[in-house]
């Protein structure tokens, strides 16, 4: 039975095109760290990162803020994600960030989503759960809710293989489930029908397809597949549309930069449709290894009309390691060289900025 199950998981993946920019977040949401889609309102629920107001913001996918749910008695120590149960209409806020891995416990707030939004500001009294890790404090930015069983799961961030934990139905100790074959997880979601599980880091979106009566933890023990995604400057949020027609992502707003865009990746029928369904107004970028020189690459990109162009290369920690172009005025098809021959092996993100928009791609660099 295992072999057919694995084959089906490979064939039935979550294919998406895009991204398409739906709008931009309001100025108040400048460090978006978590996002989910509502089942009963046509909006997205978002939270800001550490130090922000203890509020959940309801925003239309075009960027208009409709309501602010202010959690009475709550504090935003390090809010890193939100999860949602479409059956019970419950919003979960994950105060689970811990960069230095020093917190004795982390906290999850839960609140019933209002059926009527009579804002602009509504005070909501949340339920609070304090939880501890069985293997010591650690940083995390991902909370998942299984709509089938109502189980909650936390994905850690800092380890070379991130760790999956189940939130216990009773008690205060998280239950370790399994290691995951990636690191720096920053957000995720489970589709409203329970079939698809997505978790992202700064470079990739990873997916699992559930089969038959599988539990979430059973599905996530399999190797994930990768889902089409264009890396963002500081992308930490992912929300699957409630009708499972695609998923949304947003990035944190950069200091002094434009309002953060709301990106949408629509579902497409097959892998062959992924590259075809894209925003042709957006610049394009491709990074190709040079066959005769290990660690050297050619960056090929196209700019639709003359604009200021910059290209930066960052590692997964966000550190800039190269700047092949810096505020150069150009248009059309272009090429530039990238030399990573002395850089450590690993994942790098090549970011093309054209005016207020961007395009990017991730590369796996190996010197040998």
Task: Tell me the overall shape.
Answer: globular
Number of strands: 26
CATH topology of the largest domain, anyone?
Tachylectin-2, Chain A
Largest sheet: 5 strands, mixed
Task: Tell me which CATH architecture of the largest domain applies here.
Answer: 5 Propeller
Written as H for each helix and E for each strand, in order along the chain, the element string is HEEEEEEEEEEEEEEEEEHEEEEEEEEE
Question: Mean pLDDT across all residues, rounded?
Answer: 94
Top CATH class of the largest domain? Mainly Beta
Query: How would you classify the helix and strand content by structural class?
Result: mainly beta
Task: Please mark out the parts with pLDDT under 50 across 5 or more consecutive residues, or reply none.
Answer: 1-11
What is the helical fraction, as a range of percent? Answer: under 10%
Radius of gyration from the alpha-carbon trace, in angstroms? 20 Å
How many separate domains make up the residues? 2
- What is the CATH homologous superfamily assignment of the largest domain? Glycosyl hydrolase domain, family 43
Number of helices: 2
């Amino acid at each position: 039975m295992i072999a057919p199950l694995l084959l089906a998981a490979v064939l039935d993946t979550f294919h998406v095109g895009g991204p398409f920019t739906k709008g931009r977040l309001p100025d108040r949401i400048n460090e978006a760290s978590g996002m989910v889609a509502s089942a009963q309102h046509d909006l997205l629920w978002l939270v800001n990162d550490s130090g922000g107001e203890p509020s959940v913001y309801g925003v239309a996918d075009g960027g208009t803020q409709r309501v602010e749910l202010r959690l009475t008695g709550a504090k935003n120590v390090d809010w890193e994600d939100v999860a949602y149960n479409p059956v019970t209409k419950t919003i979960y806020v994950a105060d689970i960030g811990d960069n230095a891995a020093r917190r004795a416990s982390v906290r999850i707030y839960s609140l019933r989503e209002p059926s009527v939004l009579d804002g602009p500001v509504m005070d909501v009294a949340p339920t609070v759960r304090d939880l501890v890790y069985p293997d010591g404090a650690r940083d995390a930015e991902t909370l998942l809710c299984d709509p089938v069983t109502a189980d909650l799961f936390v994905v850690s961030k800092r380890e070379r293989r991130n760790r999956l934990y189940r939130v216990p139905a009773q008690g205060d100790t998280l239950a370790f489930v399994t290691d995951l074959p990636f690191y720096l997880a920053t957000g995720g979601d489970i589709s409203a029908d329970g079939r698809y599980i997505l978790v992202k880091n700064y470079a990739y979106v990873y997916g699992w397809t559930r089969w038959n009566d599988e539990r979430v933890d059973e599905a996530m023990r399999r190797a994930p597949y990768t889902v089409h995604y264009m890396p963002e400057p500081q992308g930490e949020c992912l929300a699957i549309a409630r009708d499972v027609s695609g998923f949304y992502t947003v990035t944190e707003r950069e200091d002094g930069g434009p309002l953060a865009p709301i990106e949408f990746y629509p579902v497409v029928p097959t892998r062959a449709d992924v590259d075809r369904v894209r925003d042709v107004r957006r610049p394009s970028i491709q990074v190709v290894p040079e066959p005769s020189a290990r660690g050297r690459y050619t960056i090929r990109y196209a700019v639709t009309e003359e604009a200021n162009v910059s290209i930066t290369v960052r590692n997964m920690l966000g550190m800039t390691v190269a700047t092949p172009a810096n505020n150069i005025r150009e248009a059309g098809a272009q090429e530039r060289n990238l030399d990573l021959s002395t850089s450590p092996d690993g994942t790098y993100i090549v970011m093309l900025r054209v005016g207020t928009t961007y395009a990017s791609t991730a590369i796996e660099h190996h010197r040998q």
